[in-house]
Amino acid sequence: MAWISLFFAGLLEVVWSAAMKQSDGFTRPVPSLVTAAAMLASFALLSYSMRSLPLGTAYTIWTGIGAVGAFTVGIIALGEQFSLMRVAAALLIVAGLVLMKLSSQS
If 0-12 CB within 10 Å is exposed, 13-18 middle and 19+ buried, where does residue 90 land? Predict the structure, then answer.
């Protein structure tokens, strides 16, 4: 259950980071509220996951899902720059996440 919670915590990190971008510096109310709600839910799920997963593993997976997810949303939904070097960097993050998961005993 900790891994499932951690996965959803990472997805919510993508939601709050994308909503924060759309909030235009917290000047738009709806994206600002989505940011706050998703952030609280993400932290709560991360906290729950850390009850049984090691700190380093949980935090690395959470930030990795958030980073790669935000990168993907930025390219697909926000028209941010696509380059092979940026994709290679994202793939290296994913490889690190896989290694972290494989090395975890939980």
Answer: middle
Domain ranges within the chain, ordered by starting residue: 2-103
Query: Do 104 and 54 meet the contact criterion of CB atoms below 8 Å apart?
Result: yes
pLDDT tens-place string over residues 34-66: 999 999 999 999 999 999 999 999 999 999 999
Inter-residue contact 3 to 11 (CB < 8 Å): no
> For the chain, first and last CA: distance in Å?
10
Please state whether the predicted TM-score (pTM) of the whole model is above 0.85.
yes
Q: Tokens 């070097």 sit at which residue?
A: 85
